[in-house]
Design a protein that fits this description.
Shape: globular
Helix content: 25-40%
Order of helices and strands: HEHHEEHEEHHEHEEHEEH
Largest sheet: 7 strands, mixed
Radius of gyration: 18 Å
Structural class: alpha/beta
Strand content: 15-25%
């Protein structure tokens, strides 16, 4: 018996099965490969998200460019610079009605009723996940964060929480001389601190350590989307648990 082929209707059923409401705000970390065979491919997957959420809520996907942007290759072109975090994110950021935030390394692409507010003044942020930028607005706007067929180690939001709580040895002291091509074509200087650990530890490899603590408080919803296993968490719940863990041990994720 062959593998099941998924379509718009079946994937919409899976999506709503996670408890998503049409007026929710949702950020999705994703693995297209994990979803399996889909009629219409990646565009069908994105149609599920956008048609369900973009009218009354907001749907966002990371569109990071940290993999290539550096002190030499230092001009971020939000229109043409590809996302380095998966095919769904790359296709999504190019869609009509989607706005990409003007962050040189950790941009987010978004569409929905509050998308312009969500990306506003992002070019002024000088750290990877500044509290006043998009990553902080995940908390302010009560976003739900879904890990769709991918590990919670990809929880970029936790970089933000560590940053906001001033956990030491997470950012460079110096700033790279990065630049942004603005919508009017002007070049905006944006010196930027980068993620850094003196011991060479990738703390994100430990970000899934939060899962048992979230489960203990019933802060996790599990489900499926196509063939992919999914977990859903609220940004505010993640912050609450993480702040408690880091208060007891500020190097919880660095050990």
């Amino acid at each position: 018996m062959g593998k099941k082929t998924h379509d718009f209707d079946s994937l919409t059923k899976d999506f709503t099965g996670l408890g998503i409401k049409p007026d929710d705000n949702v950020l999705i970390h994703s693995s297209m490969k994990s979803i399996g065979e889909v009629t219409g491919g990646a565009d069908t997957v994105l149609d599920v998200f956008c048609k369900y959420l973009s009218e009354n809520g907001n749907i966002a996907l990371p569109s990071h460019s940290w993999e290539k942007i550096n002190a030499e290759y230092n001009i971020f072109d939000p229109v043409n610079e590809p996302s380095c975090v998966g095919i769904l994110t790359e296709i999504f950021r190019k869609r009509e009605g989607v706005i990409r935030s003007l962050h040189p390394t950790h941009s987010i692409a978004v569409t929905g009723k509050d998308s312009e507010y969500f990306v506003r003044d992002e070019h002024l942020i000088d750290t990877p996940c500044g509290r006043e930028g998009c990553w902080g607005k995940l908390f302010d706007m009560d976003f739900k964060i879904i890990f769709l067929g991918c590990s919670a180690k990809r929880n970029t939001y936790l970089h933000g929480v560590e940053e906001w709580l001033n956990i030491p040895d997470r950012l460079t002291e110096s700033r790279q001389p990065l630049k942004i091509i603005m919508p009017d074509g002007e070049i905006f200087d944006r010196p930027m601190r980068r993620h850094h650990n003196k011991r060479g530890v990738d703390v994100s490899d430990n970000y899934d350590k939060i899962i048992p603590y979230m489960q203990k408080e019933n802060f996790i919803v599990k489900g499926v989307f196509g063939d992919a296993e999914c977990i859903l968490m609220r940004a505010r719940d993640i912050y609450k648990i993480t702040a408690e863990l880091l208060e007891n041990n500020m190097n919880f994720f660095g050990e």
